[in-house]
Predict the structure of 3-isopropylmalate dehydrogenase.
Amino acid sequence: MKICVLPGDGIGPEIIAEAVRVLKALDLKIEMEEALLGGCAVDATGSPYPDATQKLALAADAVLLGAVGGPQWDNNPREQRPERGLLGIRKQLGLFANLRPAILYPELANASTLKPEVVAGLDILIVRELTGDIYFGQPRGIEVRNGERFGFNTMHYTESEIRRILRVAFEAAKKRNRKVCSVDKMNVLECTQLWRDVAIETGREYPDVELSHMLVDNAAMQLVKNPKQFDVMVTGNMFGDILSDEASMLTGSIGMLPSASLDANNKGLYEPSHGSAPDIAGKGVANPLATILSAAMMLRYTFANEDAAGRIETAVKKVLAQGFRTGDIYEPGMKKVGTRAMGDAVLAAL
């Protein structure tokens, strides 16, 4: 199993180090090689996604990423911003499906800002299309019209792009509670009428899965009001970006949530849902559990090793049950630990 490891920026190197330790502890036949992506790559090579990294990522079976970005690169030319590296690797590897689970562990019910009875037992999977929508629409940019600046872009999807992401969602639902909620804005955005039409057509291929539809504004409200009604939510790039971040905070900390971005053959890029957290970088206090759980997703989806994935997830649950907490999920009476100590606890639980 060849894994391209991209520590990235901010807290990325710290949390990746713990995930790598966990993978090595499993005694699997894994080859891991590090490369640069993001701001660190810009500093070293002038490019956020340099040629050497591209070569390694293309040759690998999977990619494990920490995080990219930081304020020191905010004023760079657009093509030299860290986020362009992330968009670049997604596009080059054909990663069209982003899977973000939002799971509330029982031990962390009090960490959520919502009442425990509203979120206890929460287990949602958000499937987000990753290569289309307004992020990649053409044309895009800023023009001056009648003396005023005018920003513009277009939202676009082809029927085949919509159908393939919907099939990912339905296949995932078959392994869960067999419910898919497709999210659009067809009452205002005519282009998303196509999304709903294709969702209805694709749903007929899965008669054993219940399909529902929801407008994105209502979906945002329902995630706060009654989140446990959802099993699998599927939507486009922009709506998915927003809704998955909202869902992540239902669990109390985005530091607990992994993600997977997959191609058509289940080659994937695996990363925590949170960002580079430059304010705590280098302090040894970041929560590595989302990255460790991302490694578990990698073993499950790309390498089809359910046993190893389950071992990691069971170890994380055990650590939480033992009361270990990093600062983002800490509450009185628990054992407050740093990044390395949390990794030690997971290794001990394994």
About this structure: The chain has two domains: 1-96+263-350, 104-256. The longest helix spans residues 159-174. The two ends are 20 Å apart (CA to CA). The mean pLDDT is 93.
